[in-house]
Request: fold
Amino acid sequence: MSSPQPLIFRKGLDMKDAVAGELAAAYDSALVDRVRGSDFKYSSGRLLVHLAHEFGFCYGVDRAVDYAYQARRRFPGRNVFLTGEIIHNPHVNDRLRSEGIKFLSDPEAHPELLGPDDVVILPAFGVTVDEMARLSSQGCTLVDTTCGSVLNVWKNVVRYAREGFTSIIHGKVKHEETRATASQALKYPDGRYLVVLDRAEATIVCDYIRNGGDRNDFLKQFEGAMSPGFDPDTDLQRVGCANQTTMLMSESLEIGEMFRTAMRDRYGDDELVSRFRAFDTICSATQERQDAVIALLDQERLDLMLVVGGYNSSNTCNLARICEATVRTYHIADPDCMLSADEIRHRPVGAPSTTAGVEAVTHGWLPGSGSVSVGLTAGASTPNNIVGEVIRKLERFCE
Ligand code: SF4
Reply:
């Protein structure tokens, strides 16, 4: 007997107008609109807030959340599931739960029991090839919100695999997007991938390309970050660079150059073209948010910087890394982290972004008197209403 055919929605569900009011009520902020209209500045008493010119919801997240609401409306009476977090923002995920959407990542969920009556929403960062195949074979109705910028990375990784290049993916090996991207490399039998987290890991791989090394040490070092059966002696002879879309752009570009140089050192200029590929696959929304914060740090005198977003949000963590290099920075998940004018809960900059629970408490974060200039930005999965509440709370604390 043949498997049931899945119905896949990739371009919306014709319910955009029906949910527009609901989305605006849930996630917009009149205050943020006002600040935007006032040259991204907000002044109240001794407080001056400088908002980055690009911040918050990106086009991919906007679309994913929109489709989730449309799915709920389009299929009343049917079970609607998310494979896991739709985006890395606890408020948005909690709201979707309260709308009746269930999470397949919950311990009580039974993904193996899904069938043609069930609707499954795929998140903005995509799912692995295996997960997609399983859901398809179960005949579920799929609402695919995978962002176009992620699909662009996948296209490059598939091409690398087809042409015999190992994908070197600058990303976080446990991040859903990187797992999904890596799985694309396995669409071809000889497809290979290796995930590198940062410059330090890239340096180890580049040294191996140049000089070889202890194979077992290498395999131990990158355990869990390589395609099955990876052999550094043969699988680093032709490499193509890609990245998780939300990494620090400057670091991704640098890592790409490190690999180009290593391949040139090992094989010479003449062979570079046949042995090395690179594409800039950082998404434009991530780049714009990073550029905006760099401009803000450059142009304004700030006492401190607040970066708002989920602790497991890669792009938010990278915004915090940029800010921390210049000014005292607090990465907060939401306004509840601002406990008082003296006390703030925050994620230490540089802690692993996949660990939701790492949090510090700092006293004396806000100057107790005199004028205070606060820079503010928010990650791509943070809605404007949260940003607006942060401004309101700052205002109260500075009275
Ligand atoms: S951060 Fe970039 S890749 Fe990710 S959903 Fe947003 S626009 Fe798409």
